[in-house]
Amino acid sequence: MPAIVSNSGQDHPAEIRSQFTSTTGGVMTVEAGAITGDLELITRPTADGNSVEALVRYAGARDLYSISGSPVPTTHEDHHQQIRERLTTPGRVGSAGEIPVDLVSYDR
Predict the structure, then answer these.
(1) Over the stretch 6-46, which tens digit does the pLDDT of each residue have?
(2) Which residues on adjacent β-strands are paired with residue 64?
(3) What's the burial of 66, exposed, middle or buried (CB within 10 Å: 0-12/13-18/19+)?
(4) Which of 14, 37, 51, 91 is an S-S bond match for 25, by CB 3.0 to 4.6 Å?
C-alpha cells in the first residue's frame, strides 16, 4: 500500500503512514512489547528536525506505540520506506521462534 502523507495542523509536521503485516516475531514496542499482525507505521520528524520518530499501531486502532530504538537520527522522507522494510524483514530465530524486529540496531 502506498504511503499516506498527512499534515493535519497538529503539533507535528507532516507524517508518513503506511500499512504492513508484521513478521512472525512482530515489532518490539516500548509500551506494549512485541505486537504482531496487520499494523500501521507512522513516521514523523522530531521537533528539532534531526531525527524521525517511528510509531506503530494495529491497523484501524487509535493507540500508538513507540518502536524500540526510535527516534532514528535521519531525514524523514528518505527513511520511512527503509524503516518499513526493516519491520517487514523476518528477525533472527531464537529458541522460542522468531525474535521481534526493532530499530535498536537499525543501520543508520
Answers:
(1) 444 444 458 899 999 999 999 999 999 999 999 999 999 88
(2) none
(3) middle
(4) 91
CA distance 89 to 66: 19
Is residue 77 over pLDDT 90? no
- Count of structural domains within the chain: 1
State the Cα angle at 106 between 102 and 108, rounded to 5°: 155
| Segments in the chain forming alpha helices (H) | 76-87
Instruction: Please state the φ and ψ torsions of residue 91, each to the nearest 5 degrees.
Output: -80, 180
Give the pTM. Answer: 0.66
**Is 106 a member of any domain?**
no
Range of the domain at 84: 4-98
DSSP state of 25: T
